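Quarterly update, task 2.4: 2-oxoglutaric acid-bound model.
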Amino acid sequence: MNPTNTTELLASYERDGVVRIRQFLSADEIAAVRAELDRYIRDDLSTLPVDARTLEKDEKTVRNLWRLEKYNSFFRQLGERADIQSLVAPLVHGEPLLAGVETFNKPARIGSGVPYHQDNAYFCQTPPDMLTVWIAIDEVTEANGPVFFVKGSHQDGMQPTKPSGVRGNSIGMAEPSAVPVNEQFCGLLAPGDATIHQCETIHHSAPNTTDHSRLGLLLVYRGSHTQTDPKLKAAYTAAVTATPPA
Ligand SMILES: O=C(O)CCC(=O)C(=O)O
């Protein structure tokens, strides 16, 4: 991993709720991730439970892979890498536990959008010491559906939610952020770059109408001290029951 100034990283993360790290994974590591994802989708996915994925509207193309830490040892080992866990430990204010490995594939032309949300509506953890490392496998451009983050929004805590009816993103915010998109942090990334966002940072992304795929691999961590908040969990359970599996 590219060496990082931990003090600066932590200060930006605490202030903004989102940070960008260039060359988080090397070109060789990205090639290995891509090869394993291709193999997994081709050889394994059809044999696994339906909670392993969400498909796009064409009912064929993968929108998301879920629970890769459970179903695939390559991705579990990546998520458990000591150098990555040491980097995120101060950000989760404790001992990091790998909570999930997943993808947002945003395939060319049909990749669907992601409504405004806060991840803690899904994770339901208190205190909100949980985060996502979003690693670009493809280049992320302004045109192919980058993730936009509302800087500092994590500091205002959880906002009212509503079921979204979107498969793969079942719970969204009752109202979108009032911050105009052109004032939000746009996660433009080269392959191997990453963003890290706190679980209460408001974010969203547009559909991909270009001819270029925008594949992201997500590593999700929480501090070992966090606990499930029953009120958040009840709202999530209602939304995900309406639109499974996530
Ligand atoms: O990749 C995207 O478009 C959305 C990602 C997202 O919602 C997340 O990282 O929580």
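Highlight for this quarter: The longest helix spans residues 27-44.
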